[in-house]
From TrEMBL:
<feature type="compositionally biased region" description="Polar residues">
    <location>
        <begin position="177"/>
        <end position="194"/>
    </location>
</feature>
<dbReference type="GO" id="GO:0030509">
    <property type="term" value="P:BMP signaling pathway"/>
</dbReference>
<protein>
    <recommendedName>
        <fullName>Mothers against decapentaplegic homolog</fullName>
    </recommendedName>
</protein>
<feature type="region of interest" description="Disordered">
    <location>
        <begin position="171"/>
        <end position="194"/>
    </location>
</feature>
<dbReference type="InterPro" id="IPR017855">
    <property type="entry name" value="SMAD-like_dom_sf"/>
</dbReference>
<dbReference type="GO" id="GO:0030154">
    <property type="term" value="P:cell differentiation"/>
</dbReference>
<dbReference type="InterPro" id="IPR003619">
    <property type="entry name" value="MAD_homology1_Dwarfin-type"/>
</dbReference>
<comment type="similarity">
    <text>Belongs to the dwarfin/SMAD family.</text>
</comment>
<dbReference type="InterPro" id="IPR013019">
    <property type="entry name" value="MAD_homology_MH1"/>
</dbReference>
<dbReference type="Pfam" id="PF03166">
    <property type="entry name" value="MH2"/>
</dbReference>
<keyword id="KW-0539">Nucleus</keyword>
<dbReference type="GO" id="GO:0009653">
    <property type="term" value="P:anatomical structure morphogenesis"/>
</dbReference>
<dbReference type="InterPro" id="IPR036578">
    <property type="entry name" value="SMAD_MH1_sf"/>
</dbReference>
<dbReference type="GO" id="GO:0000978">
    <property type="term" value="F:RNA polymerase II cis-regulatory region sequence-specific DNA binding"/>
</dbReference>
<dbReference type="GO" id="GO:0005737">
    <property type="term" value="C:cytoplasm"/>
</dbReference>
<feature type="domain" description="MH1">
    <location>
        <begin position="16"/>
        <end position="140"/>
    </location>
</feature>
<dbReference type="InterPro" id="IPR001132">
    <property type="entry name" value="SMAD_dom_Dwarfin-type"/>
</dbReference>
Length: 430
């Protein structure tokens, strides 16, 4: 036998239980990683009577009801498998159901699950058939009136628009996640998991939805409106990088639903990564250089089920200004939210945007146009800005990005094109 053969390989073998469970593995990538993940699980489940049998029953009969299969929750909630850390329910859903799974944001527990990951109990259910994958909701078309009956004094979006146009603070307010997010001060929102942060029916309604516009006694007929549908674009967002008020490098077009924006230097044009460390700028000062060194793993953006999440994977905090997020939580539109390391925050909700757009078309071009501000999200690394910082605006921060959401912007474009032009005239001397 060759003298360089590792001693460990002479004694390595896969137990029958692990081999059996690997028989239900989905996909053919990362064979060794999956084997180690299953081996780690088997060692935990063997300590619990009936747990192995219950897992095998769930995997072999996916359509049949099954019980929770649990393992102890670790201190940080994550599980390490071969130098990689991940959430346990995500790891085993990836092994046995969805090999392309990227994040826990893509999973929701079934009602039958007694120990879902999000419940923060001492045990976590890893039964892959106790979770479902989040589906992108179908957004109803926006019905643009053919004949405007707009009265600028009666805008349903006065709260949103007036705050945006007339009460912009000298410096944006600041909020820190999760401390500032406990008690929303704005509209009442549903607390159901599938509609988190959506306004209740009494708060927001579709003035002329397909189901109501031609009802009994209604003066409106469907022919009075032009339906404008939402279409998913090829690139869900684009990201531009700035240093102070200077754009640096090319714009990154995101086609993958999971995008990492970090401070490293991978030159391979990976569609999942935007490496800021690659970008050069001859005007860079020492503050910018030092800040860039601390971006590290940066931010992970997820686009899941019509919602955008930002997870701070840097050792330093990130700072986000998202009008959609601020509206959800009842904050001032210009508020800057601090996301500490290891935390994630929903920064855009397509369904909320759809509801606001459906309202605004009945109140004029200007109100619809105002929603374009909701489709741009600004985010700084390491250094914050706003009332609690000496930097007044984002262009004073050393390193920041601007995210344009293509789907909502294209939808707005189609609606505005149908609406024509603003009601308020403007001249060269006004």
């Amino acid at each position: 036998m060759h003298s360089s053969t590792p001693i460990s390989s002479l004694f390595s073998f896969t137990s029958p239980a692990v081999k059996r469970l690997l028989g239900w593995k989905q996909g053919d990538e990362e064979e060794k990683w999956a084997e180690k993940a299953v081996d780690s699980l088997v060692k935990k489940l063997k300590k619990k009577k009936g747990a192995m049998e219950e897992l095998e029953r769930a995997l072999s009969c996916p359509g049949q009801p099954s019980k929770c299969v649990t393992i102890p929750r670790s201190l940080d909630g994550r599980l390490q498998v071969s130098h990689r850390k991940g959430l346990p329910h995500v790891i085993y859903c990836r092994v046995w159901r969805w090999p392309d799974l990227q994040s826990h944001h893509e999973l929701k527990p079934l009602e039958c699950c007694e120990f879902p990951f999000g419940s923060k109990q001492k045990e976590v259910c890893i039964n892959p058939y106790h979770y479902r994958r989040v589906e992108t909701p179908v957004l109803p078309p926006v019905l643009v009136p053919r004949h405007s009956e707009f009265n600028p004094q009666l805008s349903l979006l006065a709260k949103f628009r007036n705050a945006s146009l007339h009460s912009e603070p000298l410096m944006p307010h600041n909020a820190t996640y999760p401390e500032s997010f406990q008690q929303p001060t704005g509209p009442t929102y549903s607390s159901s998991p599938s509609h988190m942060f959506l306004p209740s029916p009494s708060t927001v309604s579709y003035p002329h939805s397909p189901g109501s516009s031609s009802g009994p006694g209604s003066p409106y007929q469907l022919t009075d409106f032009r339906p404008v549908c939402y279409e998913e674009p090829q690139h869900w967002c684009s990201v531009a990088y700035y240093e102070l008020n200077n754009r640096v490098g090319e714009t990154f077009q995101a086609s993958s639903r999971s995008v990492l924006i970090d401070g490293f230097t991978d030159p391979s044009n990976n569609r999942n990564r935007f490496c800021l460390g690659l970008l050069s700028n001859v005007n860079r000062n020492s503050t910018i250089e030092n800040t860039r060194r601390h971006i590290g793993k940066g931010v992970h953006l997820y686009y899941v089920g019509g919602e955008v999440y930002a997870e701070c994977v840097s050792d330093s905090s990130i700072f986000v200004q998202s009008r959609n997020c601020n509206y959800q939580h009842g904050f001032h539109p210009a508020t800057v939210c601090k996301i500490p390391s290891g935390c994630s925050l929903k920064i855009f909700n397509n369904q909320l945007f759809a509801q606001l757009l459906a309202q605004s078309v009945n109140h004029g071009f200007e109100v619809v146009y105002e929603l374009t501000k909701m489709c741009t999200i600004r985010m700084s690394f390491v250094k914050g800005w706003g009332a609690e910082y000496h930097r007044q605006d984002v262009t004073s921060t050393p390193c920041w990005i601007e995210i344009h959401l293509h789907g909502p912007l294209q939808w707005l474009d189609k609606v505005l094109t149908q609406m024509g032009s603003p009601h308020n005239p403007i001249s060269s001397v006004s």
